[in-house]
Specification:
18 helices; three-stranded antiparallel beta sheet
């Protein structure tokens, strides 16, 4: 039977308290600092400490394992505390009788935990997965913003309606689909983790759909044309130092970015030990620690670029960075924009004596940071140009996906699919030779009869056995191949009859022994039909 009582605790006598006699027992009397009221408390047997009674009733009961337990009822009313105690005792009896599902009970307990306590475990999970500091901080910040907006305290309070309400708030602020997707990705990864680790019975945000950024891109990156690259390279190579990098080093940095597609962060972390310039096919090895997808990457270089890099890093320590790039993230893009503006200015100056040409150049998008389509040229646009130049060089979509290190072919086609247009006609032309030698009316069309013009291609000993030695490839001879072993279904009875007929005919046409498995026979057109 569970019991309730008020626990008495022993505390030191407060400073400034006076000892008074109350009903024949000594008490300490003092003014409480918080309530500013006079408080009295009896002294213990030693007379040096006071005995303070808890304001809430304490419950004492025996759990299902027979162990004594104590817990505060958080109630000042004795009857209410007794009802709570009786409920705890009843739950223990149900556990002893195995009437309570321990899994469901654990899910209930986890659902009543504060979201902040779950976020501590979720943060540990992300750090154990080798996520970078920026990703961890951003993800936790997004989750806390959504929880605060919906006043979610417990994990069980998370619901899809609240997520949709926050999306509506982001829309009212004018946020793009990419921003909305980032917020939903953070909170959905959190709820998915809760469900997978049995902290919630199911994922409450499983039905929440993330928007597609392609339908609402706020910044489209432009492709650097070949003529623009030539002009930029020539102008920057002769320019002065900018952002702590010489003109030659900046040209080399831009060139490596265009040729390999490496990102700014990957280039910043690259040191001399990542360069393999002495091999037959020089390449840069980007380790998993510095790549976006956390996988090792091998980006190949042209011999000219490899020679330029070798001259640049000569004399540097193995752990020294290849490029002395600006420390701030946005400085690299600002450096490129400054160089692009210088190159455009120099390009316009060359037409100063021709007013018409100068006007035409000023109206063009040549080396414009933002063209008339609204596309922007920043440092990541060099990676975009890398993929576009591969497409222009004739690379297939799969090759572009591998070189750009895209996770899926869908991402490759979404980014560069418009550049592959015009290849459909070439694909159809490749199919025409195959269609030109298809079966003609009256030929056997079953799976056991294969017909084509000209001598058959080598296909193994079974298909070439019994093949006549005097095949004439210059005349349009039709060869029929009958595979007797494959003619085992009732539907192929006509083919079996044709095969037997061909065996009889072949015995008079060839000196070799007719094999049982297969035979190539030269017979005049048209070939035997199924009804032969």
């Amino acid at each position: 039977m569970a019991t309730v009582f008020k626990r008495t605790r022993s505390k030191p006598i407060p400073a400034g308290a006076e000892i008074v006699d109350l009903k024949g027992k000594p008490h300490a009397s003092w003014i409480c600092r918080k309530s500013k009221r006079k408080v009295r408390a009896p002294l213990d047997a030693s007379g040096k400490r006071i005995q303070v009674e808890d304001p809430y009733y304490t419950i004492e009961w025996t759990d299902h394992n027979g162990q004594p337990r104590k817990k505060s009822s958080r109630s000042r009313d004795k009857q209410t505390a007794q009802r709570i105690a009786n409920k705890l005792q009843e739950e223990c009896a149900q556990r002893r009788g195995k009437l309570v599902n321990p899994v469901q009970e654990r899910l209930t307990q986890q659902g009543q935990r504060f979201i902040e306590s779950h976020l501590v475990d979720f943060e540990a999970k992300m750090r154990a997965g080798d996520r970078d500091e920026q990703h961890v901080t951003t993800t936790l910040g997004y989750i806390r913003k959504i929880a605060a907006h919906n006043a979610w305290q417990m994990a069980a309070e998370i619901n899809s309606d609240g997520a949709h309400r926050y999306v509506g708030t982001l829309r009212e602020r004018g946020s793009s689909n990419r921003t909305v997707q980032a917020y939903l990705t953070a909170i959905k990864s959190f709820t998915k983790w809760l469900a997978q680790n049995h902290k919630l019975p199911f994922d409450p945000l499983a039905d929440v759909q993330k928007p597609t950024p392609r339908t609402d891109r706020r910044m489209e990156r432009r492709i650097l044309e070949h003529g623009e690259w030539d002009c930029l390279r020539n102008v920057v190579a002769e320019s002065a130092e900018s952002y702590g990098m010489s003109g030659v080093e900046r040209v080399l940095l831009y060139g490596v970015a265009v040729q390999t597609g490496l990102r700014a962060g990957e280039l910043r972390e690259m040191n001399r030990g990542h360069l393999y310039l002495d091999s037959d096919t020089p390449f840069i090895r980007a380790k998993a620690a510095i790549t976006k997808n956390s996988k090792d990457a091998r980006q190949f270089l042209s011999p000219d670029m490899a020679a330029a890099l070798a001259a640049h890093v000569e004399g540097k320590a193995p752990n020294a960075p290849v490029f002395n790039m600006p420390g701030q993230k946005g400085d690299v893009a600002a450096m490129l924009r400054t160089d692009v503006a210088k190159a455009r200015s120099a390009w316009l100056t060359t037409a100063a004596r021709d007013p018409d040409e100068r006007m035409r150049r000023e109206q063009s998008d040549f080396l414009q940071v933002r063209n008339h389509k609204g596309e922007v040229l920043d440092f990541h646009a060099l990676r975009h140009s890398c993929g576009a130049w591969y497409v222009e060089a004739g690379a297939s979509p799969k090759e572009v996906q591998t070189l750009m290190r895209h996770a899926t072919i869908t991402l490759t086609m979404d980014t560069y699919g418009h550049l592959f247009r015009g290849q459909e006609s070439e694909t159809v032309k490749k199919l025409r030779p195959l269609l030109a030698h298809g079966p003609t009316p009256g030929e056997p069309s079953g799976q056991c009869a294969k017909t084509r013009e000209g001598p058959p291609s080598p296909g193994g000993a079974a298909s070439n056995a019994g093949r006549p030695d005097d095949l004439e490839t210059s005349n349009p001879i039709r060869y029929n191949h009958f595979d007797v072993d494959r003619c085992c279904q009732p539907a192929c009875a006509a083919d079996r009859r044709s095969a037997r007929r061909v065996r009889e005919l072949a015995s008079s046409l060839t000196r070799n022994q007719v094999p049982r498995k297969g035979l190539w026979v030269r017979i005049p057109c048209p070939p035997l039909s199924h009804n032969a």
